[in-house]
Design a protein that fits this description.
single chain, about 240 residues, alpha/beta, Rossmann fold, 13 strands
Protein backbone atom coordinates (compact mmCIF):
# COMPACT_ATOMS: atom_id res chain seq x y z
CA UNK A 1 0.00 0.00 0.00
CA UNK A 2 1.22 3.49 -0.84
CA UNK A 3 2.32 5.65 2.06
CA UNK A 4 -0.13 8.43 3.00
CA UNK A 5 1.14 12.00 2.81
CA UNK A 6 0.89 13.98 6.05
CA UNK A 7 1.19 17.76 5.91
CA UNK A 8 3.07 19.08 8.95
CA UNK A 9 3.01 22.73 10.00
CA UNK A 10 6.35 24.33 10.75
CA UNK A 11 8.32 27.26 12.08
CA UNK A 12 9.57 30.11 9.90
CA UNK A 13 12.16 31.78 12.12
CA UNK A 14 15.72 33.09 12.17
CA UNK A 15 18.05 30.12 12.46
CA UNK A 16 21.78 29.38 12.51
CA UNK A 17 23.77 26.42 11.28
CA UNK A 18 27.53 26.60 10.91
CA UNK A 19 28.42 29.93 9.28
CA UNK A 20 24.88 30.47 7.99
CA UNK A 21 22.40 32.73 9.78
CA UNK A 22 19.19 33.01 7.81
CA UNK A 23 15.42 33.05 7.89
CA UNK A 24 14.56 29.35 7.72
CA UNK A 25 11.72 26.87 7.52
CA UNK A 26 12.40 24.28 10.19
CA UNK A 27 10.84 21.61 12.35
CA UNK A 28 12.53 19.45 15.00
CA UNK A 29 12.94 15.91 13.73
CA UNK A 30 11.35 14.57 16.92
CA UNK A 31 8.02 15.85 15.64
CA UNK A 32 8.11 13.88 12.40
CA UNK A 33 10.12 10.77 13.31
CA UNK A 34 7.06 8.94 14.75
CA UNK A 35 5.15 9.56 11.52
CA UNK A 36 8.00 8.18 9.42
CA UNK A 37 8.14 5.16 11.70
CA UNK A 38 4.38 4.68 11.22
CA UNK A 39 4.81 4.63 7.43
CA UNK A 40 3.88 8.16 6.37
CA UNK A 41 5.52 10.58 3.97
CA UNK A 42 5.83 14.05 5.53
CA UNK A 43 5.28 17.29 3.59
CA UNK A 44 6.36 20.37 5.56
CA UNK A 45 3.89 23.26 5.27
CA UNK A 46 5.49 26.63 6.06
CA UNK A 47 3.23 29.66 6.35
CA UNK A 48 1.90 31.08 3.11
CA UNK A 49 -1.27 32.61 1.67
CA UNK A 50 -4.25 31.23 3.66
CA UNK A 51 -6.26 31.26 0.43
CA UNK A 52 -4.21 28.23 -0.65
CA UNK A 53 -5.34 26.06 2.26
CA UNK A 54 -8.06 24.18 0.38
CA UNK A 55 -5.70 23.42 -2.51
CA UNK A 56 -3.09 22.11 -0.06
CA UNK A 57 -5.63 19.89 1.72
CA UNK A 58 -6.61 18.38 -1.60
CA UNK A 59 -3.03 17.15 -2.01
CA UNK A 60 -2.42 15.63 1.43
CA UNK A 61 -4.07 12.80 3.34
CA UNK A 62 -3.84 14.19 6.87
CA UNK A 63 -2.93 17.39 8.73
CA UNK A 64 -0.43 17.46 11.58
CA UNK A 65 -0.45 20.61 13.73
CA UNK A 66 2.92 20.83 15.44
CA UNK A 67 4.17 22.85 18.40
CA UNK A 68 5.56 26.35 18.47
CA UNK A 69 4.96 29.84 19.76
CA UNK A 70 1.75 31.06 21.39
CA UNK A 71 -1.38 31.60 19.31
CA UNK A 72 -2.09 35.33 19.14
CA UNK A 73 -4.75 36.13 21.80
CA UNK A 74 -6.41 38.42 19.26
CA UNK A 75 -7.52 35.25 17.46
CA UNK A 76 -9.90 34.53 20.34
CA UNK A 77 -10.71 38.12 21.29
CA UNK A 78 -8.35 38.53 24.26
CA UNK A 79 -5.67 40.99 25.26
CA UNK A 80 -2.18 39.46 25.51
CA UNK A 81 -0.77 38.39 28.85
CA UNK A 82 2.66 39.77 29.75
CA UNK A 83 4.14 36.27 29.35
CA UNK A 84 2.77 35.72 25.83
CA UNK A 85 5.16 35.25 22.93
CA UNK A 86 5.36 37.87 20.23
CA UNK A 87 2.55 37.03 17.77
CA UNK A 88 3.34 35.09 14.61
CA UNK A 89 0.41 36.45 12.63
CA UNK A 90 1.36 34.75 9.37
CA UNK A 91 1.66 31.31 10.92
CA UNK A 92 -1.59 31.72 12.85
CA UNK A 93 -3.59 32.77 9.79
CA UNK A 94 -2.14 29.98 7.65
CA UNK A 95 -2.69 27.23 10.20
CA UNK A 96 -6.19 28.35 11.15
CA UNK A 97 -7.07 28.20 7.45
CA UNK A 98 -5.55 24.72 7.19
CA UNK A 99 -7.53 23.46 10.18
CA UNK A 100 -10.81 24.78 8.84
CA UNK A 101 -10.12 23.31 5.41
CA UNK A 102 -9.19 19.94 6.92
CA UNK A 103 -12.35 19.85 9.03
CA UNK A 104 -14.49 20.76 6.03
CA UNK A 105 -12.83 18.06 3.93
CA UNK A 106 -12.98 15.41 6.63
CA UNK A 107 -9.22 14.87 6.58
CA UNK A 108 -7.59 13.31 9.67
CA UNK A 109 -6.07 15.84 12.07
CA UNK A 110 -3.52 15.38 14.85
CA UNK A 111 -2.44 18.32 17.02
CA UNK A 112 0.41 18.53 19.51
CA UNK A 113 0.90 21.30 22.11
CA UNK A 114 0.33 24.54 20.14
CA UNK A 115 -1.58 22.34 17.70
CA UNK A 116 -4.15 21.50 20.39
CA UNK A 117 -4.51 25.16 21.27
CA UNK A 118 -4.86 26.13 17.61
CA UNK A 119 -7.57 23.51 16.96
CA UNK A 120 -9.49 24.82 19.97
CA UNK A 121 -9.21 28.44 18.80
CA UNK A 122 -10.28 27.45 15.27
CA UNK A 123 -13.47 26.08 16.81
CA UNK A 124 -14.17 29.29 18.76
CA UNK A 125 -12.53 28.27 22.04
CA UNK A 126 -10.19 30.26 24.27
CA UNK A 127 -6.89 29.69 26.08
CA UNK A 128 -5.41 30.17 29.51
CA UNK A 129 -2.51 32.41 28.53
CA UNK A 130 -0.23 31.51 31.45
CA UNK A 131 -0.78 28.21 33.24
CA UNK A 132 1.02 29.26 36.46
CA UNK A 133 -1.77 31.81 36.97
CA UNK A 134 -4.22 28.89 37.02
CA UNK A 135 -2.36 26.19 38.97
CA UNK A 136 0.04 28.32 41.02
CA UNK A 137 3.32 26.76 39.87
CA UNK A 138 5.49 26.27 36.78
CA UNK A 139 5.62 22.45 36.69
CA UNK A 140 4.15 22.39 33.19
CA UNK A 141 7.06 24.34 31.73
CA UNK A 142 10.25 24.25 33.74
CA UNK A 143 12.25 25.95 30.99
CA UNK A 144 15.59 25.04 29.40
CA UNK A 145 13.80 22.47 27.18
CA UNK A 146 13.31 20.17 30.18
CA UNK A 147 10.17 18.05 29.84
CA UNK A 148 8.37 17.30 33.10
CA UNK A 149 6.47 14.04 33.57
CA UNK A 150 3.00 14.78 34.95
CA UNK A 151 -0.05 12.58 35.30
CA UNK A 152 -3.07 12.67 33.00
CA UNK A 153 -6.43 10.95 33.24
CA UNK A 154 -7.94 9.90 29.92
CA UNK A 155 -11.73 9.90 29.77
CA UNK A 156 -13.32 6.56 28.89
CA UNK A 157 -15.39 6.12 25.74
CA UNK A 158 -13.17 8.48 23.74
CA UNK A 159 -10.90 7.92 20.76
CA UNK A 160 -7.92 8.64 22.98
CA UNK A 161 -9.02 5.96 25.47
CA UNK A 162 -8.63 3.39 22.69
CA UNK A 163 -5.06 4.52 22.06
CA UNK A 164 -3.63 5.45 25.45
CA UNK A 165 -3.73 4.16 29.06
CA UNK A 166 -6.40 5.83 31.18
CA UNK A 167 -3.88 6.88 33.85
CA UNK A 168 -0.29 7.70 32.99
CA UNK A 169 2.53 10.23 33.34
CA UNK A 170 3.32 12.05 30.09
CA UNK A 171 5.97 14.61 29.00
CA UNK A 172 4.78 18.19 29.50
CA UNK A 173 6.16 21.51 28.26
CA UNK A 174 3.55 24.26 27.90
CA UNK A 175 2.72 27.54 29.59
CA UNK A 176 -0.67 27.94 27.89
CA UNK A 177 -3.64 25.59 27.89
CA UNK A 178 -7.21 25.24 26.68
CA UNK A 179 -9.74 27.26 28.68
CA UNK A 180 -13.20 27.34 27.08
CA UNK A 181 -13.52 24.31 24.84
CA UNK A 182 -14.36 25.02 21.21
CA UNK A 183 -17.61 24.05 19.52
CA UNK A 184 -17.88 20.37 18.61
CA UNK A 185 -14.82 19.38 20.63
CA UNK A 186 -14.94 17.12 23.68
CA UNK A 187 -12.34 16.84 26.42
CA UNK A 188 -10.60 13.47 26.32
CA UNK A 189 -7.90 13.99 28.99
CA UNK A 190 -7.17 16.20 31.98
CA UNK A 191 -4.04 16.66 34.04
CA UNK A 192 -3.70 15.95 37.76
CA UNK A 193 -4.46 19.65 38.30
CA UNK A 194 -7.61 19.60 36.17
CA UNK A 195 -6.20 21.27 33.07
CA UNK A 196 -7.54 20.15 29.70
CA UNK A 197 -4.76 18.05 28.17
CA UNK A 198 -6.53 16.54 25.14
CA UNK A 199 -9.55 17.27 22.97
CA UNK A 200 -11.13 15.48 20.05
CA UNK A 201 -14.01 15.84 17.61
CA UNK A 202 -16.09 12.66 17.54
CA UNK A 203 -17.90 13.80 14.39
CA UNK A 204 -14.69 13.55 12.37
CA UNK A 205 -13.00 10.40 11.11
CA UNK A 206 -9.90 11.25 13.20
CA UNK A 207 -9.48 14.58 14.98
CA UNK A 208 -7.36 14.43 18.13
CA UNK A 209 -5.14 17.00 19.80
CA UNK A 210 -2.81 16.49 22.76
CA UNK A 211 -1.45 19.31 24.89
CA UNK A 212 1.50 17.15 25.98
CA UNK A 213 4.37 15.95 23.79
CA UNK A 214 3.80 12.39 22.54
CA UNK A 215 6.83 12.71 20.26
CA UNK A 216 8.93 12.42 23.43
CA UNK A 217 7.09 9.32 24.60
CA UNK A 218 7.65 5.69 23.71
CA UNK A 219 3.98 4.92 23.01
CA UNK A 220 3.19 4.66 19.30
CA UNK A 221 -0.55 3.93 19.14
CA UNK A 222 -1.61 7.55 18.52
CA UNK A 223 0.83 7.91 15.63
CA UNK A 224 -0.11 4.55 14.14
CA UNK A 225 -3.83 5.34 14.32
CA UNK A 226 -3.38 8.78 12.75
CA UNK A 227 -1.37 7.41 9.83
CA UNK A 228 -3.83 4.52 9.41
CA UNK A 229 -6.74 7.00 9.28
CA UNK A 230 -4.90 9.07 6.66
CA UNK A 231 -4.28 5.96 4.59
CA UNK A 232 -7.96 4.98 4.72
CA UNK A 233 -9.11 8.55 3.95
CA UNK A 234 -6.89 8.54 0.89
CA UNK A 235 -8.36 5.22 -0.26
CA UNK A 236 -4.96 3.59 -0.30
Amino acid sequence: MAAPVIGATSYVEDASTGVWHERAVWLPDAYVAPLRDAGAVIAVLPEQDPALAEDVLARIDGLYLTGGYDVDPAAYGAEPHAECDEPRAGRDAWELALVRAALAAGKPILGVCRGAQLLNVARGGTLHQHVPDVVGHDDYQKGDAIFRELGVSVLPDTLLARLHPLERDVPMYHHQAIDRVGEGLVVSARSVHGLVEAVEDPSQVFCLALQWHPEHDELTAVWDAFVAAARVRAGR
